[in-house]
Amino acid sequence: MNPILDINEIENHFVLFPQWQQEAFQSFVHKMTDSEHPFPCIPATLGFKLNHLRYAFIEEIQAEKSAYELASLLKEYGPLSKETGIYASLIIFMKSNTKVSSSILENERYFWHLLNRVSELDDKPWPAHIPQTPHNRYWEFCFNGEPYFIYCATPEHTLRRSRSFPVMMLAITPRWVLNHFHTSNPHANQIKSFIRERLAHYDQINPHPVLNRYGQEDNYEWKQYFLRDDQTTLSKCPFTSHHKKKNPH
């Protein structure tokens, strides 16, 4: 399995990376630094600029192998994230596989299958303060005792450019990062408005109606993990954690 890297480690060994990894990382750098079409998520661009982000590559999109690799990465990243900065996120690039990359809906099914398999590999109890049902406004995906927000981008997204990327990409952000941003930043609401404005210019479709803030009464985090290229969404979350049987409460 490839290690978790910072930007300096990638740049220092860039010529040794497989071509698809070089191209994926270059695409990400462009996305984070494009001044003509600035990426909407301001904290993400700050995290990139300040080297608070960490990166990993998963060579094959195959359910079993990729699930084990992602679980191993998350186990390593949880403690590491607290040492990388207040805009910490783990960016994972996954090599494209035509078997799961022919449509938005197939990507969506694969994404949720992956999260379910990763959760099954989790040997720590589900955090007591996080509900286990996704249809609760305080639910969040958890692994190794750490709650995360997960963003997924794919090559099949075209209208929603904020979710478009040449390979499947996951941006996994610890909940403590988001909480810290909202509680310690007096301009958080203003920055959120700027993000909305950027999003309206960046995408070729209106912002998805499910986008909202964690904890609000009408918000469900799982709906924001994988946004379709239209305004529809799943009516029921496909996530079914094994923790419900192991650690009921």
Describe the structure.
The protein is an alpha+beta fold and 249 residues long. The protein has one domain. Helices cover 39% and strands 12% of the residues. The longest helix is centred in the N-terminal third of the chain and has 19 residues. The chain is globular, with a radius of gyration of 17 Å.
> What are the segments in which pLDDT stays under 50 over at least 5 consecutive residues?
245-249
Largest sheet features = 5 strands, mixed
Global morphology: globular
Helix fraction, binned, reads: 25-40%
User: What series of H and E elements makes up the topology?
Assistant: HHHEHEHEEEHHHH
Oligomer: single chain
Biggest sheet, spatial arrangement of strands: 1-2-5-4-3
Structural class: alpha+beta
Radius of gyration (Å): 17 Å
The portion of residues forming beta strands comes to 5-15%
> How far is the N terminus from the C terminus?
35 Å
Number of domains: 1
- Mean pLDDT across every amino acid position: 91
Count of distinct strands: 5
Number of helices: 9
Quick take:
This protein has one domain (7-246).
Task: Give me some keywords for this one.
9 helices, alpha+beta, five-stranded mixed beta sheet, 5 strands, 249 residues
SSE order and pairing:
Elements: H1 7-12, H2 19-33, H3 42-49, E1 53-58, H4 63-81, E2 89-94, H5 104-120, E3 141-143, E4 146-153, E5 168-174, H6 175-184, H7 188-202, H8 222-225, H9 243-246
Parallel strand pairs: 1-2
Antiparallel strand pairs: 2-5, 3-4, 4-5
Helix pairs in contact: 4-5
